[in-house]
Known about the structure:
The protein has about 450 residues and is mostly helical. It contains 16 helices and four strands. It folds into two domains: about 1-230, Growth Hormone, Chain: A; about 280-455, Up-down Bundle (Growth Hormone, Chain: A). The model is unreliable at about 220-275 (pLDDT under 50).
Amino acid sequence: MSALTHLLACLFGTGSWVSVNGLWVELPLLVPQVPEGWHLPSYLSLLIQAANVGPLALALAHGLRPGGLDERAAVRGVLALGTLATFLLAFFWKETLVVAGAPRSVAFLVLAFFLAAVDCTSSVTFLPFMARLEPRYLTTYYVGEGASGLLPALVALVQGAGAVDCVRGPAGRNASEAVPVFRPARFSPEVFFLFLSAIMLACSAAFLLLNRRAAAEGRVRWPDRKERAEAGPMAEAGPMAEAGPMAEVGPMAEARPMAEARPMAEAPQPRRRRSPLGLGTYGRTQVFYIFTVLAWSNALTNGVLPSLQSYSCAPYGSKVYHLSSIVAAASNPLACLVATFFPVRSLRLMGALTALGSGVGVYIVSMAALSPCPLLVNDPWGGAIMVAAWMAFVLSLSYVKVIIGVILRDEGHGALVWCGAVVQLGSLLGALAVFPAVSVYDLFASGDPCNTPCL
């Protein structure tokens, strides 16, 4: 039964970001068929950041009224909306309306906003729900969350999205110049969006089964809203927070007075909370450090570097670009899988891996800034180093995020709510920081996959 729960947790995590990741990998097939053209990615970035208002509002509501947020109802609504939006996208993504005298992909943009809201809100609803299960299932959830980027990438690879041929002759401006031409896809975007809808439906089924298993096993009796409000902030840590590994669970354990567990001469001492986070295991400085690293790692992995991936990889060729995309997508669940067997909680290791990932990220940004002529652009080692850099970057920072998730899971339900909020805040700040450089000031130049002007 434990293996089945692991499978359900993984499948549940897959639905967290699969919709937005699917939109990104499908862009090469969508862009030629929509009036926005290659401006569509910038519109999509803005919609995703606007959708961050939802999860931040939920986190604020949780902070103002602890215990008043039932994430189970929120998860049901999020999954229903995500399943419906991806299904409708398969039929209406090409529909246009005339706005301000020009055709616009209104249906696609509206549905994309709903999908972005679904995926962003999953950070502050899916994680707190996982606190209802045993801690060992959280890392499995992270494996599924990483797979939410890998699955669409693999399907898009089979589909042929973004595959480019260099054609010489009539298509070029002269006979000696080659121009990039996208290959026809093996199946249409409609089929791809139906696949995303099926993933969301499977995620919904996994959530319903997980919810039943959590209630049936009775491993964690979660207090209702009134009980949580009366118990105060310590209730956010859950009923198992202060119990040892051999503690009793159930009505008899709740009714047993504390005097039976301790000598009469030893009065119970109240736990001295060192910080406002969960059980107070970490001091205020450590809490600030943990959340700063969490925000920084998500700013890099979800905001800054994805916007620059084409600039850093395309000059080395389309094969390097596609290989780096797949390697990066596969590195995320791989890091989560490693964390499943080695759930380290060391703050020093977290800092060392963050420094490593940030250093590799600086190299990737530097190569993107040098595009279309980065270092070793005409050398096979240049492409190999870039693929290895993307793998090391995603592996290190993904493991950091899992470490933080394990730490905050130990601190209880409320800590995971703030974990999701900081994830979204970091992603928002990273995207806002890089957007003007890419889309307003044009500080990065794209490489031509068919004509390399570098000597």
